[in-house]
Design a protein that fits this description.
Strand content: 15-25%
Radius of gyration: 23 Å
Low-confidence stretches: 305-310
Oligomer: single chain
Number of strands: 13
Structural class: alpha/beta
């Protein structure tokens, strides 16, 4: 067996087609097809069901890929450790973000990171949180920056930042009965939870957190629209479609956009922690640790700072 063999099978499984996989591997489609067939002949079992579209792994293929990914991940760890030993700062770093978090976070960390490590190629992936975690498990990404209220099996995490979740509504959409403290901008969550809700599609980390808030309030959410982004949710709430709950970083992205009112969900901030997720037991080298430190520092420096616990404006 060759390492190239593991890479080819893993890439084909990820892409689901010979056309896409051959393009990613920079080889011709017939060459890839012949190579996979040769591997299957050598081990005496079919790895892919070619009758389906997209391609799917057979049971044998699933077991093969599980072992192959362990070997590829160990090779990646070894390369990082050799890089640290030789102080040869080249290689790659693959990082993933939810679709809007990348807009906020990547500009904060990419420039200082590249200035310090110009020889490290940074590859970026974006998508819903559940897909990013799956890509992490599959070995297709090294770190995923994701907020969460729960842990993931076989995934380690390092805290990067803490963010408040806030409620957004159109101006004068809420009545006096919806507040615990109108002057401080604190809503009565049980009261506002019955209002129409704009929220993210399932699969996003925020959607899962919003569902927890509603379960704690004992209220079934009245969802009037499922959005693909927090910025869209903000704009729809600003137009009076309903309330929405978003992380405070979205407010930075929406500066200069439609005006809306923003409130605290309780007298003590409702927050979630943002983590850098990575494979449990993977090697964290100098470059990787520097990325985590830079991200933590930049997020702290750019977080919205308030004097005391004041209403948003």
């Amino acid at each position: 067996m060759e390492l190239k063999e593991f890479t080819y099978v893993s890439t084909l499984a990820q892409c689901g087609s010979f056309t896409k996989a051959s393009a990613r591997l920079f080889i011709t489609q017939p060459a890839l097809s012949n190579y996979i067939s040769k591997v299957e002949d050598e081990i005496g079992v079919k790895l892919f069901d070619r009758s389906s579209s997209p391609l799917v792994l057979t049971y044998a293929g699933q077991q093969y890929l599980k072992r192959a990914r362990v070997i590829l991940n160990q090779l990646e760890d070894m390369n990082r450790e050799m890089r640290d030993i030789t102080h040869h700062k080249t290689g790659r770093l693959r990082i993933g973000f939810p679709s809007e978090r990348i807009v906020y976070m990547l500009p904060l960390i990419l420039t200082p990171f590249k200035a310090r490590y110009p020889g490290i190629d940074v590859e970026v992936m974006s998508g819903p949180g559940n897909r990013l975690v799956e890509s992490l498990r599959e070995g297709n990404v090294d770190f995923v920056f994701l907020p969460a209220w729960h842990s993931y099996k076989d995934i380690a995490r390092t805290k990067i930042a803490e963010e408040e979740l806030v409620l957004v509504a159109a101006r004068n959409y809420l009545g006096q009965e919806h507040f615990l403290d109108r002057e401080a901008g604190v809503v009565n969550w049980r009261s506002v939870a019955g209002l129409p809700l704009v929220t993210l599609n399932k699969g996003h980390a925020l959607r899962a957190s919003v569902e927890v808030l509603y379960r704690n309030a004992g209220v079934k959410p009245n969802i009037v629209f499922e959005s693909h982004s927090n910025m869209l949710s903000y704009r729809l709430a600003a137009q009076g479609l309903g309330i929405t709950i978003i992380p405070e970083i979205t407010l930075e992205l929406m500066k200069g956009s439609m005006e809306a009112e923003v409130f605290h969900l309780s007298e003590m901030p409702v927050t979630w922690e943002v983590y850098a997720l990575h494979r449990e037991g993977c090697y964290i080298g100098e470059v990787e640790q520097a990325l985590l430190d830079m991200t933590r520092r930049e997020m702290a420096a750019h977080r919205t700072i308030k004097s005391g616990y004041q209403p948003y404006s």
